[in-house]
């Protein structure tokens, strides 16, 4: 079982920023590193699963002609819409329907280890089917997640289910890593 909706709702019960994204120097520097890890200077359309309150979207949306974020939690999405008014934010709990879009960039930042192995494989399959040549950026916390899956294992399961993408670790610190997946077309 992945992390359930009730647990996510609990995290956001008293705040729209449970991880302190807006104030944390660590998080802000990680967002900057995430932008630096991208292979291109601009994208047609980006999709971020588990976008939270839109802090990462705020760091990336100016280089994406369109930006779509999805999160399970309405409180997070309200904050995201305020933070990045030009982006599109939709509510949904994955596994479930993903938004429509012609995405050439998929952002999976600190979200894979909220899913379970079946969800990770499903996500890889959905991506292969719909956005098979999109660039994929995975940001992964390397400390204890407190979730059933740890970051490295979630990343391993997800990337192994996407054989057409070659994943490279482009940034690694003691705390997190950023992996970028490209296909021959997206390179
Ligand atoms: C740690 S935050 C990461 C936020 C943002 N991606 C970032 O890196 O700053 C994880 C977010 O994913 C959302 N999330 C977790 N599991 C989810 C699921 N199964 N479906 C949709 N959203 C989910 C949570 O509500 C939370 O806002």
TrEMBL record:
One of its GO terms (biological process) is oligosaccharide biosynthetic process. GO terms for molecular function: S-adenosylmethionine-dependent methyltransferase activity. InterPro entries: SAM-dependent_MTases_sf, SAM-MeTfrase_NodS-like. Gene3D superfamilies: Vaccinia Virus protein VP39 (3.40.50.150). Pfam families: NodS (PF05401). SUPFAM superfamilies: S-adenosyl-L-methionine-dependent methyltransferases (SSF53335). This is Nodulation protein S (NodS).
């Amino acid at each position: 079982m992945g992390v359930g909706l009730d647990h996510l709702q609990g995290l956001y019960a008293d705040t729209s920023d449970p991880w302190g994204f807006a104030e944390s120097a660590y998080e802000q520097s990680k967002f900057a590193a995430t932008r630096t890890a991208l292979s291109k200077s601009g994208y047609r359309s980006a999709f971020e699963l588990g976008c939270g309150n839109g802090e990462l979207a705020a760091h990336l949306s100016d280089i994406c002609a369109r930006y779509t974020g999805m999160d399970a939690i309405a409180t997070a999405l309200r904050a995201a819409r305020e933070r990045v008014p030009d982006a599109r934010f939709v509510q949904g709990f994955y596994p479930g329907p993903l938004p429509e879009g012609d995405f050439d960039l998929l952002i999976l930042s600190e979200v894979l280890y909220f899913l379970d192995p079946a969800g990770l494989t499903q996500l890889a399959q959905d991506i292969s089917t719909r956005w098979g040549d999109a660039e994929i950026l995975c940001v992964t916390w390397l400390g204890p997640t407190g979730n059933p899956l740890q970051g490295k294992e979630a990343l391993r399961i997800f990337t192994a289910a996407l054989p057409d993408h070659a994943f490279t670790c482009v940034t690694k610190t003691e705390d997190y890593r950023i992996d970028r997946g490209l296909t021959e077309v997206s390179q």
